[in-house]
């Protein structure tokens, strides 16, 4: 167990750390949710390209992502803290960087229990350069998930509702309302997670959660996308490419607000991204970086709200790096982001002065939108010192029920 000093507390990634990927090795999944014993990989780039020594620290957390207070030996075989030894410099790129890779479990670190985890990456000065969350689960219960069109007439055209059933034939639960703690995620975005749900009905060894309003999500709109696999040439949604002093600049076609437009199906990967290049053989070290210029035409009155471009590529963070600024000369909201070559989903979101985030102010919300849903089942048995994750279920709105 380790404690963070006040100087170590941070939520934003260091500016020179880019393209952080945390995902399971064994399944075709973008989400850092894995079965106990399965391996996962963490990949990131350091644009300083100095082959710095980085250390990882793993922390077991409770249902609310606070430290469980467990000693390291209670949740890990080996060490919860160690150096990252696998790294390689970029090859033949305009932007030099060092690519770091970590796989867990490894010879030094093997996780013993399920639950929420945080992995911290620290530099030589023991400063945190970034932190990521991941979930380890056991298959003790099964979860059936169904996505419905909302039954509330006031939001029937804009929301999707999630119902689920937890099957626990091999687990005796004495107090389900207190011991079972489900979480519902839309597109694996923890910013919009729904928590605090209690079972409505009991049927043998089943817990039924058939809420409507309480499990309703704004359906949003299909994600926009860009592809920079050819860094020197235009591809779909890129209007022009220019060679700058150091790097290439890709200018996207101006996006129009979609809130007043009818729903249009766009195939997407629900906010995720894939690093890929056709300019080399190794995506990790041959893919280059370039500046991607975003522009948004928005006539809606945003009432002073800030506008951001967001997706899993930046861990859904909203900060000055991905904030759009209004250009009086062009009449557009504009931003430029330094991105590694690849295929990216993104969306425009707003945040008001109270910190309320919306993904529908600009792009609208339509019940037809295809979204992924995940239900995680947390279990805190009376007297236990930590919270387990005992099951996971998946649903998708492509098969939307009425």
Characterization of this structure:
The protein has 402 residues and is mostly beta strands. It folds into three domains: 17-137, Immunoglobulins (Immunoglobulin-like, Sandwich), CATH 2.60.40.10; 142-219 and 368-396, Immunoglobulin-like; 224-358, Immunoglobulin-like (Sandwich). The chain is 3% helix and 45% strand. The strands form six sheets. Strands 19, 20, 21, 22, 23, 24, 25, 26, 27, 28 and 29 form an eleven-stranded mixed β-sheet that branches. It is globular. The model has no long low-confidence stretch (mean pLDDT 94). Pfam families: T9SS_plug_1st. This is DUF5103 domain-containing protein.
Main pleated-sheet profile: 11 strands, mixed
- The helix content is under 10%
Radius of gyration: 22 Å
Spatial gap, N to C terminus: 48 Å
Low-pLDDT residue spans: none
The CATH architecture term of the largest domain is: Sandwich
For the record, the count of structural domains works out to 3
Overall morphology = globular
Count the strands? Answer: 31
Q: Oligomeric status of the shown chains?
A: single chain
Q: How is the CATH topology of the largest domain named?
A: Immunoglobulin-like
The secondary-structure class comes to: mainly beta
Average of pLDDT: 94
* Share of residues in strands: 35-45%
Number of helices: 3
Query: What top-tier CATH class of the largest domain fits best?
Result: Mainly Beta
How would you summarize what this structure contains?
With 402 residues, the protein is mainly β. It has three helices and 31 strands. The relative contact order is 0.18.
